[in-house]
From TrEMBL:
Active site residues of this protein: H93 (tele-amp-histidine intermediate)
Domain (HIT) ranges: 4-107
InterPro entries in UniProt: Histidine_triad_HIT (IPR001310), HIT-like (IPR011146), HIT-like_sf (IPR036265)
Motif segment (Histidine triad motif): 91-95
GO molecular function, one term: catalytic activity
Any GO BP annotation: nucleotide metabolic process
Protein name: HIT family protein
Length: 141
């Protein structure tokens, strides 16, 4: 059975993409620690990041770094947080989020999906897309 991330990548359920190529997709999480919280996910469905082939893992990190720079620029945060957890969805992914302190690193401060403001989520995605030079599908213009 496909993971929820594969379903987002395949367009079976909606996602707010901020980057996408043949190997990696990046989209906003529905339960962010703050607006702009992005998941960088390999297209290939692999459970653990330690099982990804080195080339894919390298590309995931290159995209995470680009997204992190865009997050700092778009949201004025001191840093971009980077976290690997992976227990909530069995599909390798990196969390990248605006960070001014350590609070987001525990993921204990997430906003439940039903408490996020859809307008603010759309605005966050648009800010990141503009800085990354991509369209609504996350692909380069």
């Amino acid at each position: 059975m496909s993971t929820v991330f594969t379903k987002i990548i395949n367009g079976e359920i909606p996602g707010r993409f901020v980057y996408r190529d043949e190997t990696v997709a990046a989209f906003l999480t529905i339960e962010p620690v703050s607006y702009g919280h992005t998941l960088v996910v390999p297209v290939e469905e692999v459970d653990k990041w330690t099982d990804l082939d080195p080339a894919t893992w390298t590309h995931v990190n290159e995209v995470a770094q680009k997204v992190g720079g865009a997050i700092i620029d778009a949201f004025g945060s001191e840093r971009a947080g980077y976290l690997i957890a992976g227990f909530e969805v069995p599909h390798a992914h990196v969390h990248v989020f605006p960070a001014d302190d350590m609070s987001g690193y525990s993921l204990s401060t997430i906003m439940p999906a039903d408490q996020t403001d859809p307008g603010k989520m759309d605005e966050a995605a648009a800010k990141l897309r503009a800085r990354l030079g991509v369209g609504e599908d996350g692909r380069e213009k």
